[in-house]
Amino acid sequence: MKITVSHQDAMRFEAKTEKSSFVIDCPQISPIEYFLSSIITCSATDMIMLPKQQGYEVTNLQVDGEVVRNEESPKKFNSLHLEYRFNSNADDTLAARWVMASLETYCSTINTIRDTTAITYTIKHNGKMIRENETMISGGGSAVDFGTLQGCNA
Fold this sequence. Notes:
By secondary structure, the protein is of the alpha+beta class. The protein has helices at about 30-55, 90-105, 110-115, and strands at about 5-10, 10-15, 20-25, 60-70, 75-90, 120-125, 130-135. The chain has a single domain (about 30-140), classed as 2-Layer Sandwich (GMP Synthetase, Chain A, domain 3), CATH 3.30.300. Helix 1 (about 30-55) packs across helix 2 (about 90-105).
């Protein structure tokens, strides 16, 4: 993947990707807001694609993200909490698995920061809270010993 960023004027930049281009208008949206938006959008696309591949449909999807950053430079992310709200024609267990699959496996942007950022999530499915302030299994840079897992298909 290659992206080229060119200064346009004032604090506006154009980002050219292999597929398209877009303007980054820093007075309006900061680069860190673009970054957080990208993290959330990455997981949100998983939340549409994974169910679709399994014959389910997700509607009314909204994902909120809240970050706590260092107060001193570099102002890295210390923690990230994601709240998923959506409806689907699946049961709560499968809905939670979609979120966890996105967080633990498929979302590249989350997986890029997970070793340095404590990541938690909440899931509201079909109007019901099914997970609240859960910790991402592998997030936050801690080593996790899963022991022997039984009953899991590889």
